[in-house]
Design a protein that fits this description.
Radius of gyration: 26 Å
Strand order of the largest sheet: 1-11-12-13-15-14
Order of helices and strands: HEHEHEEEEEHHEHHEEEEHHEEEHEE
Helix content: 10-25%
Distance between the termini: 7 Å
Structural class: alpha/beta
């Protein structure tokens, strides 16, 4: 609101000078919009497109492929830190990596690599989900499912073993003696199912593995940003959560103000220059409200099974949000590159990775080549800067099964794990890939965002090998009126907030 007020004052002063001057005294300045150069990399957005759909495969194969792709990284790091190849402060406690859990010997210190499984008493089960689908009213859903009785198990391709953490580490205050990163802690509440880790310890007589230390993969390698002498300012804009439809939080005026600003129709000359430096808009999910139907209420299971009985008025009311956003996107795509991602509430497939919208949903906007429907997660390179992010499902799911609630810490955690969605497919729906795990992050991006969060937040994460990753929590636009601008050269992230009240 303060920014809008200052912009309005500057715009009023500028326009007053223009109106009070002689004709031709103030020369109009033509501003050209920047054009962003896009590139490709080994893990491009096509990596997330499902070409052939086969749901007959078992989900266990996805965990096997995850472990297969990350095992070599963990074994190498464990050897450098804990083994004979290491040169760090832990030389006295040198241990070797045991290839498989079945080969662990009782009382012999070793390092094992595997995938964590978290036993949780409060975790929802399929029986409860089935009863809800049948219309039976169950207990109210809980926001978090962690409890004091949770415990961890490590498993690989051939076996599993129960983990015993050091006494006093049930909370989140204890840290390893030689942590391999600031995020790694021996704490049950900060670990979830699906994490691929290396553990140092030994097996006791009860067949349990007593853990002494834990290690993640760490940040992956990163391509250097191109060096540009006196670069012109080039930015992208990230917005999400418009929630168009039967939702009291949707404010059409704010949406129109944002789109007019991006087209250069709103604000002072300084705002026009800034909007011209925006080369692309990323709409990161939840374009539509979760509530739909003529009454604005979610349909019951019986209503979902009905395929007829709707009047023309009810049909028009249902498609009205789609027509509204299509018209706005068509106007915007006429002057700006626009990428649209699906979100949790949008008409797309439920399991990750979410596939691009069908272009026929946006009849007017799809006529422009500048309009593109993308996958969730989003992965693209602009001016040598790799931008990776999601509409927020992974971060929101992690919050339910661990004590960490800060989106930026969770983004950092997934980078340390080198895996974008560790809880998939356990508690987060995912396609049953059998020959690869597309969610493994072999290389670190330069910009990493999670959309549809409660508030804006950002920080620069620096890795041990000079990696620099801009972490961004993008808030819902319908709730905050905020869009995030990211400079592709400096990696600075700036919030831009619109308000219809003073």
């Amino acid at each position: 609101a303060l920014y809008a007020a200052s912009s309005l004052r500057l715009w009023t002063q500028t326009m007053a000078e223009a109106f009070l001057s002689e004709p031709g005294a103030v020369e109009a300045k033509r501003i050209e919009r920047v054009v962003l150069e896009t590139g490709t990399h080994p893990q491009h957005e096509d990596h997330f497109e499902v070409k052939t759909k086969d749901f007959t495969a078992q989900y266990a194969q996805l965990y096997c492929m995850r472990l297969k792709e990350l095992r070599s990284v963990l074994e190498r790091r464990a050897g450098e830190c804990w083994g004979s190849a290491g040169s760090g402060p832990n030389r006295e406690g040198e241990v070797a990596v045991t290839p498989r859990i079945l080969q662990v010997h009782i009382g012999k210190p070793t390092v094992i690599v595997g995938t964590l499984f978290k036993e949780m008493a409060l975790r929802p089960d399929l029986i409860e989900h089935y009863t809800q689908q049948r219309g039976i009213i169950g207990p109210p859903p809980k926001g978090k499912f962690i409890s004091d009785t949770d415990h961890l198990v490590l498993e690989d391709e051939g076996a599993r073993i129960k983990l015993i953490l050091p006494t006093g580490t049930d909370g989140c205050d204890a840290t390893p003696a030689v942590p391999s990163s600031a995020m790694e802690r021996l704490c049950v509440d900060e670990l979830v199912t699906g994490m691929t880790v290396a553990l140092k310890g030994q097996e006791n007589v009860d067949g349990e593995f007593e853990v002494e230390d834990i290690m993640f993969c760490g940040l992956g390698p990163q391509e250097a940003l191109p060096k540009v002498v006196q670069p012109a300012k080039k930015m992208i804009a990230i917005a999400c959560g418009f929630n168009v439809g039967h939702n009291a939080s949707h404010n059409p005026l704010l949406t129109s103000m944002l789109f007019d600003y991006l087209r250069g129709y709103l604000g002072s000359p300084l705002d026009h220059e800034r909007s011209a430096s925006i080369g692309r808009l990323i709409l990161a999910g939840n374009l539509f409200s979760a509530k739909f139907g003529p009454s604005g209420k979610p349909p019951s299971p019986s209503q979902k099974r009905k395929n007829k009985g709707r009047s023309v008025e009810e049909h028009d009311e249902m498609v009205a949000p789609l027509r509204e956003i299509d018209g706005l996107l068509a106007e915007l795509a006429s002057s700006l590159e626009v990428d649209v991602m699906p979100g949790e509430n949008d008409p797309s497939n439920y399991s990750l990775p979410q596939q691009p919208f069908n272009r026929c949903l946006f009849h007017s906007a799809s006529r422009y080549q500048s309009f593109a429907c993308c996958t969730n997660p989003y992965d693209q390179t602009f001016e040598g800067c790799r931008v990776f992010g999601s509409s927020g499902q992974t971060v929101n799911d992690l919050k339910q099964y661990m004590s960490i609630q800060d989106p930026l810490r969770l983004l950092q955690l997934t980078l340390e794990l080198r895996h974008w969605a560790p809880t998939a497919p356990d508690t987060l729906a995912a396609y049953p890939f059998y020959d690869r795990d597309p969610f493994v992050m072999h290389r670190s991006p330069h910009v990493y965002f999670a959309a549809n969060q409660e508030k804006f937040d950002t920080k620069m994460l620096t890795g041990p090998e000079g990696q620099r990753v801009r972490l961004i929590s993008v808030p819902s636009f319908s709730q905050t009126g905020t869009v995030v601008l990211v400079d592709l050269h400096s990696l600075e992230a700036t919030p831009l907030t619109f308000s219809s009240t003073w």
